[in-house]
Amino acid sequence: MRTAVTLFFGIFTVMALSNAIVPVLPSFSNTSSWQGAIYSAYFLGAVISTLPSGILSDRFGRVRMMRAGFLLTIASGFLLSVTTAEVPALAARLIEGIGAGLFVVPALSVVNAGEDHKKMSGYFMALLNVGLVIGLVGPGLLATATGQPAAGIVLFTLLALVPAGASLFLREPPASPATHGDLPAFIALVKEYRWIWYSSIVLIGITGVVTSLYPKFSGAAPDLLGLWIAGMSIATILAVLAVSRFHFDEILAIRISAILMMGGVAVSFISPAGFLVLGAVAGIVMIAQMAFLARIHDHQGTAMGLFTTASYLGMAVLPFIAGIVADAAGFFAAFVVTAVAAVTVAVVVRG
Question: What one-character-per-residue DSSP string does 112-157 give?
Answer without folding.
Answer: HHSTTHHHHHHHHHHHHHHHHHHHHHHHHHHHHHHS-TTHHHHHHH
